[in-house]
Design a protein that fits this description.
The protein is α+β, with helices and mostly antiparallel strands.
């Protein structure tokens, strides 16, 4: 298969995206995006939708997270990632496989209607994750495109994928919110460097490969393109798989916790990795390609 997005080579390059961003404008269910919202997503690469989930629903989701964190048996699994300098949970992968509530959330029509509309097909979960940034301790994530890794190390051929995530706590300008480079999804940063063996074991705690240079960030961020995804708990954010994003340390006295689901089109299932000798661990690239069906709201 032709590599449409070559990366991890001898030099960094910025190339034009060849895939669509929005694959269909037809509504799927009662929670689809309106035309103006689709246009904003297509233009900017993301959309922030406040008050999608109620405080009662968020309370239930947070209580479930406490249950998972307290489960010593589960904490031994490789899906549970600690902070680089402590035993505190930084990320839980595939939360929907450990929790009925999170599984139901991943199929909630308020999310799935929008995802299937944007990607123009049935979808499955490439992986899920909960990112926790502890008050005053949570560490940063460098600028990166998720798709660069999913393409290079997981073998996703095209960028027909996106992240949908719910704020479980308020995301403020002080507690390490997600930063995005608006419209950067229209370009692909072909990164310099050769992928080390089992790179994911280090990159999940500190990413060093597949990270754009400061020169690339300057080019793509010029003309006031930097934005922060801030909002109240219950906010839903959708962002394109290729948009450049990152976050700073949490220097506030408040935790920042978000729950993510990565949705991929069933027409874009993985092939052989494009810039790695072997795929990442199975929990990072799930192989259940059965189309998701919407469930009732949580």
């Amino acid at each position: 298969m032709k590599d449409l997005y070559p990366s991890r080579g001898l030099e960094e390059k910025i190339i034009k995206r060849v895939d669509d961003v929005v694959y269909s404008k037809e509504k799927i269910g009662k929670y689809s995006l309106e035309e103006r919202e689709l246009e904003a997503y297509e233009q900017d690469g993301f959309i922030i939708l406040p008050e999608v989930f109620s405080s009662k629903e968020i309370k239930k989701l947070k209580e479930e997270l406490k249950e998972l964190e307290a489960n010593e048996k589960l904490r031994k699994k490789e899906e549970f990632i600690s902070e680089p300098d402590s035993n505190k949970i930084r990320t839980i992968f595939n939360q929907h496989l450990f929790s009925k509530i999170y599984k139901k959330l991943s199929r909630d029509p308020r999310i799935l209607n929008k995802v299937m509309q944007i990607l123009g097909s049935d979808v499955y979960i490439h992986h899920g994750r909960i990112n926790v940034k502890r008050a005053y301790r949570g560490k940063s994530f460098p600028w990166h495109s998720d798709f660069e890794t999913w393409h290079s190390e997981d073998g996703l051929p095209n960028c027909r994928c996106l992240s949908a995530w719910v704020m479980l706590t308020d995301n403020t300008q002080f507690n390490g919110p997600l930063y995005l480079i608006k419209q950067s999804h229209k370009k692909f940063v072909s990164c310099e460097g050769i992928t080390p063996k089992d790179n994911y074991k280090k990159s999940l705690k500190k990413q060093e490969y597949g990270v754009p240079s400061i020169n690339a960030i300057k080019k793509l961020a010029k003309n006031d393109k930097l934005v922060s995804a801030i909002g109240k708990a219950g906010t839903l954010v959708l962002h394109d798989g290729n948009i450049l994003h990152g976050s700073s340390d949490n220097i506030s006295p408040d935790d920042r916790t978000n729950i993510f689901f990565v949705y991929n089109s069933v027409k874009n299932t993985p092939v052989k990795p494009f810039a790695s000798k072997s795929p990442r661990a199975p929990f990072l690239s799930l192989q259940n390609f059965k189309p998701l069906k919407t469930k009732k709201e949580i």
